[in-house]
Amino acid sequence: MFKPTQNIDTAFRAMRLLTMVIVIASLFVNVYAIHESNRLAARMQERVYVLASGKAMEALAGNRKDNLGVEARDHVAMFHTWFFSLDPDEKVIQANIKRALYLADASAKHQYDDLAETGYIAGIISGNVSQQITVDSITLNTIAEPYVFKCFSTLKIIRPTSIATRNLITQGSLRGISRSDHNPHGFLIERWEITENKDLKIENR
Fold it and tell me: Structure pTM?
C-alpha cells in the first residue's frame, strides 16, 4: 500500500529537481545571451563607415588622443598643399585658397592678401606659372594645446623657361575645434608665418 505512494513521492522529487535544473539553466543561458548581445552592440557602435568614391569603407572609431599626432600633421600638410598649389587659372587658385582658409585663422588670410597686393597671384596667371609643394616633414609638440608645429617643404615654381626649387619653412600652432565637411580634422592653424623661403636651385627648361 505504501510502495506506490513512495514511488509517486520519489518521482515528484525527481521531477522537481529536473524542473529546477531546467529553470537555472534557462536563466544562465538568458543572462549569457543578454551579456553577449550588449557586447556585440558596443562593438558595432565602434564601427564607422566612411563613404569614399561611392564606396562604403569600414573604419574603427577611437579616442582622438590615439591619433592626435597623425591627424594634426595631416591637417598641416593639407593646408600647405592647398595654399601653395597654384596654377595659371584664377578659379583654381580661388578654390584652393578657399579650402586652405577654412583650416587656418586670419594669419593665413593676411599672407594671401600680401601675395595678392604685391602682384604675385596676378603674375602666376599672366605668366603661365605653376607652383607645386612637397611637404618633407612636420615637427609637432602635442604635450599641451595649442600644439606648436614647424613645417619643412620644398616648393617648385614652374615657369615657361625655368624651374625654381625653393626651401620653404613655416610655423604656427594648432587649436582644436569642431569637425566639419570643410575641416574634417577639427583643427585651426593660428599665428601662421613663413620663416624661410629661399632658392635652392634654378634649372632652365
Answer: 0.70
